Amino acid sequence: MIEDFYCDNVLSGRIEVERIHETANVLAFRHTRPFWEIHIVVIPKRHISSFLTLESSDDSLVLELLTAVRKVAGDVVDDCGAARILTNLGEYQESKHLHFHVYSGQRIRPDNPI
To answer: Domains in the chain, start-ordered, CATH in brackets?
Structure first.
């Protein structure tokens, strides 16, 4: 298991991703192995291990991150009629980098951990 897939692979440029939305501090991209017909991941570009490790000094980043999640989710709702937003914690969090899933449509992979 890769401890931080997003820092190690996505942000480092080791793998290319289809970018959906980007700011100086946040990146939204199509999931590299989607579980849903529409499956987008939104991450901070700075390493934060979990939603539970956020500190008050992260407030402006959290606002920018949630603004990006809202934009991406709004676009998915406009295109598909519905969306879900999810973040995992603890043992459910496979990659130890704060991230939000924005997804819609039918499940396309049966091994869905979400």
So the answer is: 5-107 (3.30.428.10)
